[in-house]
Amino acid sequence: MRQLGLALLVLGVVAGIAAFGGQAVAPKRPAPKVSVGVAEPAGEVNLSPKVPPKEFERRLVMQILRLVKPGQLDSRVAEAALAAAGKQTVPILQELKEHPERLVSDEELADSKYLASGGVEVTDRRPRDARAEELRKQRLRVVEAVLTEFTQGFQPRRAIEKWAFPQGLGEGHFVNFMRDPQPVQAEPLEKVFPQFSFYALNFPKWPVAVAPPPPLAPNNVFAIDRKGNVQDLRNKEELEAFFRKQLGPVKDETTAKSVLRAWLVLTQVLVTDGWFKFAVAEDSITVAKADKGLKAAGKVVVGPGHADRGQIAATLTFDDQGKLGKVEQDVSLHAGPRPICQSQKLLDPDPVVRQMAEDSLLIMGMDAWHYLMEQRAKSSPELQQAIDRVWEKILDRE
Known about the structure:
Elements: H1 2-18, H2 53-65, H3 76-85, H4 90-98, H5 106-110, E1 113-115, E2 121-123, H6 128-152, H7 156-164, E3 182-183, H8 187-192, E4 196-202, E5 219-225, E6 230-233, H9 236-246, H10 253-271, E7 278-280, E8 286-290, E9 293-302, E10 309-318, E11 324-334, H11 351-364, H12 369-377, H13 381-397
Antiparallel strand pairs: 1-2, 3-4, 4-5, 5-6, 7-9, 8-9, 9-10, 10-11
Helix pairs in contact: 1-3, 2-3, 3-6, 4-6, 12-13
């Protein structure tokens, strides 16, 4: 019944298109590797049965991906539709993963309006390239999630939900604010833990923190093996236990550096508030001999955006058998302005308060976009104009 329901979902999407062009029935034959080509103009996708099967599948995939709209945090509908379209779409999805620039068409970007939370229409005033990049990343995550389901037999979000709520979701409110798990992809992780895929689930901290339901933490790293088994790493202790259990022998400098880098990648997920931007301090990555074993040390530093500063430093020691020994870590992070209530203070009677609110938003820059648009959607016309004035100043600074 579940597969039938998903199949009907896909057919519903196709039927909506067919109303403008013709009838369509999804072909069932497997398709060899085909060229995806350039993203087609929205509204010009012909799913007529006269279209060859391989071309039909390509166009169907592109049309389903258009279900993922700007500013959308929940992509389950598109994922379910692609899953129902069948494994014959794998070659198309793989090519899209290799060429993500084909996921967004110029015609889609010509319309800068979209529906914000609450169904309010807003105009995205960000530069065209910024809008394209965000939408491309949203759709690429859908492609990767469905490819994982087809090639490895599990869907990351469903695997995590099943682990966290084996008896079901209870009252059901959880899914309404759970963001899609984000792939954590880095070369050191692939080298050190080739049998695992990693995903981050970070609940919003600003402007109002969302309290996650147990057993989830505000910041989570999920390690999912090839069978879909999930491990949740919520803090340094659980991360260290995972490394001790899953690491192979570390007996050379190259491997030690990869393990250290993998540690730093995952630690960033566990300590961020969603705004920090980290970069590896390459000169700090060192490996030295220590008690017949090795000691790897290094750090990631916070970028200058938002007036943030700080670093994460780690030292990992390995004994003469290559086993992980002592783990030392120092997290020193200092946050700059974060979105709290600044937009509501732009019309404050006190000019000092108004200026402080504007200055904070200017420091946050382009990253304040989603916050500002959410607040704008529920503000008075006068406050909307004030928000627009600040946004124009942000654009002028870019």
